[in-house]
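Field log, afternoon session.

UNIT: design team B
ACTIVITY: writing a sequence onto a fixed backbone
BACKBONE:
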């Protein structure tokens, strides 16, 4: 963490907000607090971005779920950790579906909140570093459209959730369209494992991509096997199928 990490705490319980502010400042953050969604929106509209937002679900005006959904719809992808009052599965699901990156149930341990915020920042920094060399963050092939930055995958009308490794593999293929890529290269570049003894891992993941994206996974036209050599990604689709 750097000293410049700015945190926005959206919490209407004034004592809790003040306590959180004090503790996060002690941890080296620069902290703003907002007691309502309105105040939070005003602070977010200012130029300097926040590294993360701690967002209470129950607020006197717009609730945290709605606030987070609006934020994401407006293209703001600042990491959000949501504070929910009840440990209900539907609250957690709604929190994550509204675009929150993590959630914590009240009452919570301060140490845990700080650790979760730190972990979000680490993950974000890691993702930024990981996606930096990717020239195209948007890709289309066939009926598929992929936004690597937002981790959004769509095939026709259907949204898919891909794992990090599936996305990494897809990104590597996308960076090298039309080139035959060996399993060893994929293991080294995507899995970052050198001399990994078992290349079947690669085959399993290519099967997964085919199930996601091929009209007929048994007769692939995008993710082709090249006998004795590896795989080739053909974004325009191969005629021979
Ligand atoms: Ca509240």
């Amino acid at each position: 963490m750097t000293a410049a990490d700015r945190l926005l705490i959206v919490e209407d319980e004034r004592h809790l907000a003040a306590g959180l502010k004090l503790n996060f400042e002690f941890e080296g953050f620069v902290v703003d607090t907002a007691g309502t969604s309105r105040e939070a929106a005003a602070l977010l509209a200012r130029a300097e971005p926040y590294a993360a937002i701690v967002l209470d679900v129950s607020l006197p005006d717009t609730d945290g779920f709605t606030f987070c959904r609006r934020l994401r719809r407006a293209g703001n992808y600042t990491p959000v950790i949501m504070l929910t009052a009840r440990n209900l599965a539907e609250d957690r699901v709604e929190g994550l579906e509204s675009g929150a990156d993590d959630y914590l149930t009240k009452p919570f341990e301060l140490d845990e909140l700080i650790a979760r915020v730190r972990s979000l920042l680490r993950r974000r920094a890691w993702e930024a570093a990981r996606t930096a060399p990717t020239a195209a963050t948007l890709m289309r092939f066939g009926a598929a459209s992929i936004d690597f930055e937002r981790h959004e995958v769509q095939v026709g009308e259907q949204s898919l959730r891909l794992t990090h490794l599936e996305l990494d593999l897809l990104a590597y293929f996308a960076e090298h369209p039309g080139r035959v890529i060996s399993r060893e290269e994929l293991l080294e570049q995507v899995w970052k494992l050198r001399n990994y003894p078992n290349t079947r891992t690669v085959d399993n993941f290519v099967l997964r991509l085919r199930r996601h994206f091929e009209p007929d996974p048994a007769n692939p036209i995008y993710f082709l096997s090249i006998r004795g050599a590896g795989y080739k990604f053909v974004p325009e689709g191969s005629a021979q199928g």
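LOG NOTE: The chain has two domains: 3-129, 138-233.
NEXT ACTIVITY: expression trials, pending approval
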